[in-house]
Specification:
The chain has a domain of 263 residues. Helix content is 8%, strand content 44%. The chain has a 16-stranded antiparallel barrel. It is globular and about 65 Å long.
Length: 449
């Protein structure tokens, strides 16, 4: 190589070596396989013994012995530069393409027209994911999905892995919060819809309640640092800390605007130039076919364009697994600051407190408990109790009260049809504090590919 080329290579390779990323060495191919043995001689012939490596056969007199022969070129795995030196080879790229599809039909037997309460009828959730490993230290993931909210980029990020205990994620992703978002894809859970704290568009009265506490998948732009550490053979510790764009809303907000949070009309950028911060810590105890996971999550920041109105979300989860039996429990709690404006008496349904002041904070919390039990090889039964509660002042036009709640009781079956294709059957009964009780029935088919 020329001196200029060598200097450039040193500048490029040194930073990668500093963080533990191995650069391919000259002469090493994609794999380190041993050389193939020489072919066996034809029957009836004498085997030919190769010349010792220490006594190479001299080159013909008419050929310059210093120049590489065709055999020399074939022995090289990497490309050859203009002076006969081997260049570093490109690392092997590993690609993985996967996806899932769910078609679900929701009926509301308690209403003549279910569309007045929610998105009834047939809906499709489809996701396509491409993962690529550039090396043992660098990978990328891109995922797109189509559902009731339209086309969405669910992830587009790089993972820079320094060690099991330190991974840096950069791009667009779902920040670590709670247990259910890890399996939010419809092919990864046994019911057609999500638990109420994570609901995104499938619950009845979704407009009045403005979805759940933190709809899943919650997708944001930012950076996350995460890792895993084992303490012995039976304790696993996972952590994550991140800075993201955060929830969004317009000027003088009353609550999150989930459409603005995922709308491409705003170019997927932060609306107040201030990141939201959060993190998660989870501990899993392992004992043979049984495991217990306990975790806590947090996210804080502001959500309005003027960076004035705060929010804080806290979560806790526990998962008990014994072979194929799962018991999951989660609780989410969100405090959101509303804009009072100069005329709160025209904005809010309820007046000031005993001190003559309007309380700008409302509390929205949700929880679920879910039991998943296999009934043979192909059938899994699911029983779930979940609910939401909202306390605090409401807008003048809201149909909720100062203290409103909804409980939902769900029973379902997931039937394995063939390979990983599942039929999902479930029945839900809603108990509203502010509306008449309602029921919903789901018939869905979901599977990965």
């Amino acid at each position: 190589m020329t001196p200029r080329t060598s200097a450039l290579a040193l500048v490029l390779v040194a930073p990668l070596t500093a963080i533990g990323i191995a650069w391919p060495q000259p002469g090493n191919g994609v794999t380190d396989l041993p050389p193939a043995p020489p072919p066996a001689p034809p029957p009836g012939t004498e085997p030919v013994t190769p010349a010792p490596a220490s006594e190479p056969e001299p080159a013909p007199a008419s050929v310059d012995a210093s120049a590489p022969t065709p055999l020399d070129l074939d022995d090289h795995v990497g490309p050859i530069d203009d002076v006969g030196e081997e260049l570093p080879t490109r690392p092997e790229l590993h690609r993985n393409f996967a996806g899932s599809v769910q078609l679900d039909y929701m009926a509301v037997p308690t209403e003549d027209r279910g569309r007045d309460l929610g998105l009834d009828g047939a809906t499709v959730e489809a996701s396509l994911k491409l993962a690529m490993d550039f090396s043992s230290n660098i990978s990328a993931n891109v995922k797109v999905c189509v559902a009731c909210h339209g086309f969405e980029v669910g992830m587009a990020f790089f993972d820079l892995r320094v060690a099991d205990q330190l991974n840096i994620r950069i791009g667009r992703f779902s920040p670590a919060f709670g247990e259910f978002p890890l399996r939010h894809d419809p092919a990864n859970h046994r019911t057609s819809d999500k638990p109420l704290p994570y609901d995104m568009g499938r619950m009845l009265r979704m407009t009045e309640w403005n979805q759940g506490v933190l709809p899943a998948p919650w997708v944001e732009n930012g950076i996350e640092i995460n890792g895993t550490q084992f303490a012995g053979d039976h304790v696993q510790i996972d952590y994550a800390a991140y800075a993201i764009g955060g929830p969004r809303a317009g000027t003088d907000p009353m609550d999150f605007d989930f459409r603005a949070s995922r709308s491409g009309d705003s170019y997927y950028i932060d609306n107040n130039s201030r990141p939201a911060f959060g993190g998660q810590l989870a501990i899993t105890l392992l004992a043979g076919a049984t495991s217990v996971a306990l975790g806590g999550s947090m996210m804080r920041g502001t959500y309005d364009p003027d960076h004035e109105h705060r929010f804080a979300i806290y979560g806790a989860h526990a998962v008990l697994r014994t072979r194929d039996v799962f018991l999951r429990v989660e609780y989410l709690r969100r405090l959101t600051e509303m804009a009072l404006t100069e005329t709160p008496e025209e904005r809010f349904r309820y007046g000031p407190g005993a001190d003559g002041m309007y309380d700008p904070i409302f509390l929205k919390e949700g929880a679920y408990a879910e039991l998943e039990v296999p009934l043979g090889r192909r059938v899994t039964a699911v029983v779930r109790e979940d609910g939401l509660r909202r306390r605090g002042n409401v807008a003048m036009s809201s149909e909720l009260r100062k203290d409103s709640a909804v409980l939902r009781h769900t029973a379902g079956l997931a039937v394995l049809l063939r390979s990983s294709l599942r039929l999902k059957l479930s029945y839900e009964h809603y108990d509203f504090s502010d509306f008449s009780d309602e029921s919903a029935a789901h018939l869905g088919i979901a599977g990965p590919f």
